[in-house]
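Try this one yourself first.
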């Protein structure tokens, strides 16, 4: 085994790890997007009419 072979193997391992990290990032982003609640749903005002009962 030469020094070039070792460098290539290490580089290949780094490429595999980078690809795995990228795939994991995509999975997390897809999951987050699937679970996302639109802003319109959480900022919509709900009328509170309890104060009218006392009148």
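Now uncover the answer:
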């Amino acid at each position: 085994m030469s020094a070039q072979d070792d460098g290539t193997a290490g580089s290949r391992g780094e490429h595999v790890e980078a690809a795995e990290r990228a795939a994991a990032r995509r999975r997390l982003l897809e999951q987050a997007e699937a679970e996302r609640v639109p802003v319109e749903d959480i900022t919509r005002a709900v009328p509170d009419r309890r104060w009218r009962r006392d009148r």
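Discussion: Helices lie at 3-35, 39-43, 50-53. The chain has one domain: 3-43.
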